[in-house]
Design a protein that fits this description.
- Helix 2 packs parallel to helix 7.
- The longest helix is centred in the N-terminal third of the chain and has 40 residues.
- The protein is an all-alpha fold and 434 residues long.
Length: 434
C-alpha cells in the first residue's frame, strides 16, 4: 500500500516531464531507502523500551523504588545526546552532502546498538545509548530535508506521511522483537540482531546523490544562506507553535512508548503476549493514521487554511478521552480503546512535520528540523522518561498514564491556536522561493 501510494503520486507529478522517469526513479528510491532506515531507527529505540523490565531486573534489586527512574535515564542518555548533536549535524547537512552524513550516522548508531548487548555494567549500557543518540542526531535533521527537496509542496504531506509510517511500524517491531527475543534468548540478543541490517543500509547511502545537485538542480549552486534566514525561522510563529505542540506530543508518545511494558505488567498482562498485541495495534492503527493524516491534510490544503494544524489538533483532542477510557476499562476491552487512542495520536505525524518543512526556507531547512529535534526532546520525552518513572515508582503506572492524558489535550489545543498563522507563513516561504 505504501509503495503504490508513493508511485501514484510520483507518476502524477512527473509524467509530463521529459526527464521525469529518471527523477521519479531517484526520488522513489531515496524515499524507500530513507523509509527502511527510519524503520530500523524506531526498532532500535523501542527495543530498549520492550526490554526495560528485563534490564531493570538484571542491574537493580527488586525492592529499589528508584530503579525505574534509573532505567528511565537510558532513554535520557539517548535523547539528550540526540538533541544536542542534531543542531550541530543539521548545520553540516545544510552545507555538505546529506547522504554522506546520513550513511555515517546510521553506521555509528548500528554499531552502538549492537554494543548495547555487550554491556557488562549499567554504566557501559548508558554509554552505548549516548553513541546511538549521536548517530541518530546526524540522521534526524537530514532525512526529511531530502524528501522536502525531492517532492513539491502539493504532494509533500503524502510523501512525509509515507516516510513517517516507519514510526508505528518500527516501534511495533521493536516491541515484538524485543519481547519475543528477550523472552527466549535474553535481552542482549535483541540488540545483537538489529545491528547488521543497519550497517547495510548505512553503506547504501554512500551511493546516493544529494538532491540539491540532482537532475532538477544541475548547474545550480547550493542555496546561499545568511544569518537573517536563521533569524527569520525563529520569528515564524507557526514554526514556534508547531515546535511546542510536537514537544507535548513527543512527551506523550515517548513516555508511553518507554513505559507501556511496565504499565501492561501493572495491569497483569503477560509481557510477551501483551507486547505482541500492543505491537500489532501500533502497526495497524499507527500505519493507517499516519498515511491518512498526510493524505487528508494535503487534500484539504487548498480549501481549508491551516489544514496541517487542523488535522493534528483535532486528532489529539479526540485521542484524549479515548485514552482515559482505556485506563479504566478491563482487558481485553481496553485493547479496543487503546487501538483508537493510538490511531488518533498518530494522525498528526505527517501533517506536523510537513508544516515544519513548508514554513522554513530550503537553505536552512535541515537546521529547522534540527532545532525542532532539540526542542521537542529537551522538553518532551527526555522529561517524560524520568518523570513518568518517578510518578510510577512512587504511586503507580495508572496515575502516571492519567497525567499523560492531560498533556494530550494541551497539545491539541496548541495546534489549533497555530491555525491562525500557518497559511500566511507557508505563503511567505513559497513567495520567497519563487
Amino acid at each position: 500500500m505504501i509503495y503504490n501510494l508513493c508511485r501514484a503520486n510520483c507518476n502524477r507529478q512527473l509524467s509530463m516531464d521529459p526527464a521525469g522517469k529518471k527523477i521519479m526513479s531517484g526520488a522513489r528510491g531515496a524515499l524507500f531507502l530513507l523509509l527502511a532506515i527510519n524503520l530500523f531507527n524506531y526498532i532500535d529505540r523501542q527495543i530498549l523500551a520492550a526490554l526495560e523490565p528485563d534490564i531493570r531486573a538484571g542491574f537493580f534489586a527488586p525492592g529499589d523504588v528508584n530503579a525505574m527512574t534509573k532505567t528511565g535515564l537510558l532513554g535520557d542518555a539517548f535523547f539528550v545526546t540526540y538533541m544536542i548533536s542534531a543542531p550541530i549535524l543539521g548545520l553540516l547537512a545544510d552545507r555538505f552532502s546529506r547522504w554522506i552524513i546520513i550513511g555515517s550516522a546510521v553506521i555509528l548508531w548500528s554499531l552502538a546498538s549492537g554494543a548495547s548487548g555487550l554491556a557488562a555494567t549499567f554504566a557501559i549500557l548508558f554509554a552505548t545509548r549516548i553513541f546511538v543518540g549521536i548517530g541518530e542526531g546526524g540522521y534526524g535533521p537530514a532525512a526529511p530535508t531530502i524528501l522536502a527537496d525531492l517532492f513539491p509542496i502539493e504532494t509533500r504531506g503524502r510523501m512525509m506521511a509515507v516516510f513517517y509510517t516507519a514510526i508505528p511500524v518500527g516501534s511495533a517491531l521493536g516491541y515484538v522483537i524485543g519481547g519475543l527475543i528477550g523472552a527466549h534468548l535474553g535481552w542482549r540478543w535483541a540488540f545483537y540482531l538489529v545491528a547488521p541490517p543497519g550497517l547495510l543500509l548505512g553503506l547504501l547511502c554512500f551511493w546516493q546523490r544529494d538532491p540539491r545537485v540532482g537532475a532538477r538542480h544541475l548547474g545550480e549552486k547550493s542555496p546561499r544562506r545568511s544569518m537573517s534566514d536563521y533569524l527569520r525561522l525563529f520569528r515564524t510563529r507557526s514554526y514556534l507553535i508547531n515546535c511546542v505542540a510536537i514537544t507535548l506530543m513527543t512527551f506523550v508518545t515517548g513516555g508511553l512508548g518507554f513505559w507501556v511494558p511496565a504499565y501492561l505488567r501493572y495491569r497483569n498482562q503477560s509481557p510477551a503476549v501483551g507486547m505482541t498485541i500492543f505491537g500489532l495495534i501500533t502497526v495497524v492503527a499507527g500505519l493507517v493514521a499516519t498515511l491518512l493524516g498526510g493524505v487528508i491534510a494535503d487534500r484539504l490544503r487548498s480549501r481549508v487554511p491551516g489544514s496541517y494544524f487542523w488535522v493534528s489538533g483535532i486528532g489529539m483532542l479526540i485521542a484524549c478521552p479515548i485514552f482515559i477510557v482505556a485506563l479504566y476499562i478491563p482487558f481485553p476491552a481496553a485493547w479496543i480503546a487503546m487501538f483508537l487512542a493510538i490511531f488518533f495520536l498518530f494522525l498528526n505525524t505527517g501533517p506536523s512535520n510537513t508544516a515544519l518543512a513548508n514554513v522554513s526556507l530550503p537553505a536552512v531547512r535541515a537546521t529547522a528540523f534540527a532545532a525542532n529535534i532539540f526542542i521537542i526532546h529537551a522538553f518532551g520525552d527526555v522529561q517524560a522518561f524520568w518523570l513518568l518513572g518517578y510518578i510510577g515508582g512512587h504511586t503507580n503506572m495508572h496515575v502516571a498514564f492519567l497525567f499523560v492524558s492531560g498533556i494530550i489535550f494541551v497539545s491539541g489545543v496548541v495546534w489549533l491556536i497555530g491555525v491562525k498563522y500557518l497559511p500566511a507563513d507557508t505563503a511567505a516561504v513559497e513567495k520567497a522561493t519563487g
